[in-house]
Amino acid sequence: MATVLVAAVVGIPGESPSQPPAAGGSVSAAAVAGPGNMTDAITKLQDRLRRVPGDAQSWASLGIAYVQQARVSGDPSYYNKAAGVFRRSLEEQPEANGPALTGQASLAAARHYFGRSLQLTRQAQRINAYDSVNLGVMVDALIELGRYPRAFRELQRMVDLKPGVPSYTRVSYGFELRGDLEGATYAMRRAVDIAYSPEDKAFALYQLGELAWNSGRLDEAARLYEQGQQTAPSYVPNLYGLAKTAAASGQTQTALERYRELIGRLPQPQYVIEYSDYLTSLGRGEEAAQQSDLIDAQEQILRAAGVNLDFELALYDASHGREKESLVQARQAWASRKGVFVEDAYAWALHVNGYDRQALRHAVHSQRLGTQSALLAFHRGMIQHSLGMTKAARASLLRALEVNPHFSPLFAPEAQRTLDQLRSR
To answer: What is the signed CA dihedral for 327, 330, 331, 337, rounded to 10 degrees?
Structure first.
């Protein structure tokens, strides 16, 4: 499959750059599905619907824009707005309303209900089997559910139907999951090259930076994040990249300033957790505890908006003294999602609760695709260490540090300390 996808990326003649939303008429769901300027898209759609309130397709497109705005702004109240708008679209057009079903699928995915998302994309596919936007949402759901062969087949169809930023970024992720970082980087560079809007380009540059970061190429990652930040300062993830690369480079004051700005602009749990871990690594425990309060507050807000946080909280709880809660969350996540990262989180939750043999089975299986992840290798190594598997633990921990010696402000130093202890035996 990797070879086929490379051929698709390389051999597509006459592809066009991704297009901005249409200036007039009904703005399509496809036009607002990317990471571009959602505020402008929302305004155009709202204006359109004031003039033509019975336009079911524009209601669906507004819902998709709301879902994207929630992701960009960090305001989960947009999810509830989106749900209402999709219902309105289906009221206006109850039959053969593929865009509304795709929109509902994207909302379910944003709330981390991937089984429901897949069900909705299948309904939409029966209406229009050639909708590349729907295929993208379907691919995302299949990947999160761990149904990789089907996901890669549908991804190939998406590339064939509509090569562009959404398909190339997913191709890149498919390669990364299977450990093909060269293919992943090539596909993401294609996404950067054809991106139309500054926001699309900043999105692709961030993803390219993540590939460099996850491979331990610190300077390259920082350069790409900076390029993305300059391209579209409103796209916050590149600021996150700059914060963590500054931290990894020992630029403590710069890192703290960037993390504070990041949390002030977009207090997503992932960002707050990493900031808290960084503060802990600096010995600033009181400040780190304040971030824990913020994480708890964000959890309540997100759950009120219908977001399922089982996977994210399983990892956080496992590493922050909430072992029993972690296992409850991880089991719930694993019951509904069989992806490699969810299985790794389940393995880690089992480990911190003392179920090491069961944990090892899941840790090993979580790397069945060949994913090159420092965190996955670290988890496996620490589980092996607990089981007295000294040689295997050394190999896994060494692998984690080879892949990315800066993968975590807390766990990378722990990996090095444990490896040093094992080498001295």
So the answer is: -170
